[in-house]
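Exercise 7. Predict the structure of Maleamate amidohydrolase from Geodia barretti.
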Amino acid sequence: MADFNIDRSTTALLIADFYAEAMGTLPHAVERGVVQKTVELQAAAREAGMMVCYCATVFRPGYPEISERNKTFSARKTSGQPAVFDPVAVIHPDVRPRDGEVVVGKHRVNALFGTGLDVALTGNNINTIILLGYATSGVVLSTTRYASDRDYRLFIVADCCADSEPDVHDFLIGRILNRQADIVTASEAVSAIRSG
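Solution. The predicted structure, encoded as tokens:
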């Protein structure tokens, strides 16, 4: 991307649903070095003094946040699988949050819906989000749509996103998400952060 300039004081890096299990084992993520690229991007954002944020989908024991009408999550409620309530517990250890960085547990796909993330961003005059994570068809798509409607400027780091279906990732990046966000690479994002 030729014109990728940011103001570091009004830009946040959002590492969304960067689950240890998915990003550490999913062939789509492993083959493209998603974890290492995200580590480098996170380090650049921290070094630049940018706001770094994280989200992960979590629930209380018994899953009281899940309605039987919710097609995405209702199967989890009836699975017998124990609920995890601490978002940090499921984030990949290589990109774990530091003290003082914003971490939100979410109960839906979208990182901004029903969480304190939007309040934290607007409270710090953030108007631009650099977004990455798992899955492209989940948190990345849903958050992009919602954030765009909230008038955030959005950059999606395509090679730091992954999906269980690589062709879906490619389609969304190339045909859908680029309508509401600028699509960039990790190296482009690092360069923009360092020169911002």
